[in-house]
Amino acid sequence: MYVTASKDGSLRIWDGVSAECVRPIIGAHGSVEATSAIFTKDERYILSSGKDSCIKLWEVGTGRLVKQYPGAVNTQFRCQAVFNETEEFVLSTDEQNNEVVVWDALTSERVARLPSGHTGAPRWLEHSPVEPVFVTCGNDRSVRFWK
């Protein structure tokens, strides 16, 4: 399986063998662009983000919205929402405040707002799948390594 995020705000889950859409989640982020979508390690859930400033957790089997992670503004740039290596936390960027925002994945409680150190909003965020480290990239052509 693989998942795609669309400019029309939808998510689509595809069969990796037949390349057929097996579950569309139409309007997952309203009518604004869905900018990222990733599976959890067990492939039971999808974490998505969009230009509606919403980060959402979806159930793959039903397409049901399970959780939302509020508090990060993303309306202009494509942003990512990612899990940390243990999937205990969700991380994303806040373009309005130039920060990295961290939520508890189970409770959706915001646990940290970290100044990014970039000149302007961070444009990319990626977490290691095996270590407690991540990187951010900015328009200022800098890459920050967080440990």
From TrEMBL:
GO BP field: mRNA 3'-end processing
Coiled coil: none
Pfam families: WD40
SMART domains attached to this UniProt entry: WD40
Keyword Cell cycle included in the entry's annotation: no
Subcellular location: Nucleus
PROSITE patterns hit by this protein: WD_REPEATS_1, WD_REPEATS_2, WD_REPEATS_REGION
InterPro entries linked: CstF1-like, WD40/YVTN_repeat-like_dom_sf, WD40_PAC1, WD40_repeat_CS, WD40_repeat_dom_sf, WD40_rpt
CC terms in the record's Gene Ontology section: mRNA cleavage stimulating factor complex
GO molecular function annotations of the record: RNA binding
Translocase as UniProt keyword: no
Repeat positions for WD: 1-24, 39-68, 115-147
Origin superkingdom: Eukaryota
Keyword annotations: mRNA processing, Nucleus, Repeat, WD repeat
Entry-linked Gene3D superfamilies: YVTN repeat-like/Quinoprotein amine dehydrogenase
PANTHER family in the cross-refs: CLEAVAGE STIMULATION FACTOR SUBUNIT 1 (PTHR44133)
Name of the featured protein: Cleavage stimulation factor 50 kDa subunit
Organism of derivation: Aegilops tauschii subsp. strangulata (Goatgrass)
